[in-house]
Amino acid sequence: MRSGISICMVSPSFPSNFEGVVLRKPHVFMYGRTDISTVCEHLRKRGHEVRVITNRAYNMPSYEEYRGIPVYRITSLWIPKIRYPIPNFPRLIRVLNKIIKQYDVDLIHFWNIEYLSSIPAMFIKGIPKAISIVGIPGICWFYGNFLIDQIGRVYSVMIGKRITASVSKVIVFGKSIIPHLVRFGIPRERIRVAAYGVDEQKFIINDNKRESIRMEVRDKLGISDDVVVLFVGRLSPVKGITYLLKAAKRLIKIYNNIIFLFAGDGELRKLVADFCKKVPRTIFLGYRGDIPELMCAADILILPSLSEGLPLTLLEAGTIGLPVVATKVGCVPDIIINGKTGILIPAKSVNSLVLAISKLIEDMEFRDYLSKNLRSHVLKNYNWSAIIKQYESIYQELLK
């Protein structure tokens, strides 16, 4: 007899064990949501049964066990430019029903209303359901392209509302987004907050080791005593890349001791790479697997997004102790408290970026103050022990 809850996760993507999977090309949809997979791993460690249904990309296996979690992949058609999967709906419904019956599933947890893999929430009956959302497309979450965002808005009104109405609990990553959902028509009593944490083994680094890593990475990059401003993330319009490039160009003319590092991949890769070839003291790093080390080498992290859910990059920066300038979007204000744990600025404002980065370049004491406060805030509020208890509490509510 099992002691935990039997949960079926339905996610737009999920990591794979197979190195043969194409991971890093800009046209490929995110190969695996590590936030979702880590939630699943922690639930499993606490005695719950977790199974995952997700989209199958390219040469991914149809079934595998990822770190002890059974993963079923549904053949999907992919729209390359926006990396958007359209699942085989009859197959998705059949697999979902089969898993529910075969493994006596207690509840279904869907992820993201903007992906079509959540549509079965409207049709599966007789079992408790929840959905985690980063925002409402075209309403309080944006891609950064006018046409796509207008399509997203129509989708939200016509389909998104039906999806959220068909589940008992709508889970969000932070309190900042709740007012938007209430205005959209989701009753407050059905909204719950449960975020995700950071990989503490990778990002908690003691001061001596951090300084050693800092010197080593800077030496490899040919950087000495310059103030290093780091961007880490997907190179896409929604991340506000074009605004950051304009701000960087202005700041480099003002300060001769500043260097910008761009780490990431995406559809704007060529734009960023060409910019770094032309503009001095800018370095394009492309996709990197050493983000903790890069954060140790940096002095300031920039997140100029037009829209966000809960950015894992901010949690990682907080764990390292890296001061942050970020736009006031999504759940960012849950992490960045302006003037205390970082600097919050409006989206799409080059002037605000320039002023905020200038403030941190010129005031080292303020940088230290922000980094200490951010680290304390993240370690207290975004540790996995507390977060998994939030999910368990929501699941218990569902089962009642």
Task: Describe what this molecule looks like in 3D.
- The chain has 400 residues and is of the alpha/beta class.
- It contains 14 helices and 15 strands.
- It has helices at 34-45, 89-102, 146-165, 178-184, 200-203, 207-221, 241-254, 269-278, 291-297, 312-320, 332-335, 350-362, 364-381, 384-399, and strands spanning 6-10, 49-56, 63-66, 69-79, 84-87, 107-111, 129-133, 169-172, 191-193, 227-232, 258-263, 282-286, 300-303, 324-327, 343-345.
- Helix 6 (207-221) packs across helix 9 (291-297), helix 7 (241-254) crosses helix 12 and helix 10 (312-320) crosses helix 13.
- The two termini are 20 Å apart.
Shape: globular
What's the pLDDT, averaged over the residues?
91
Q: Taking Cα atoms only, what radius of gyration do you get, to the nearest Å? A: 21 Å
Largest sheet: 9 strands, mixed
Low-confidence stretches: 21-32
The amount of beta strand, in percent, is 15-25%
- Total number of β-strand segments? 15
CATH superfamily of the largest domain: Glycogen Phosphorylase B
Order of helices and strands: EHEEEEHEEHEHEHHEHEHEHEHEHEHHH
CATH architecture of the largest domain: 3-Layer(aba) Sandwich
Structural class: alpha/beta
How many domains make up the coordinates? 2
CATH class of the largest domain: Alpha Beta
DSSP helical segment count: 14
Helix residue percentage: 40-55%
Ends: how far apart? 20 Å
Could you tell me the CATH topology label of the largest domain: Rossmann fold
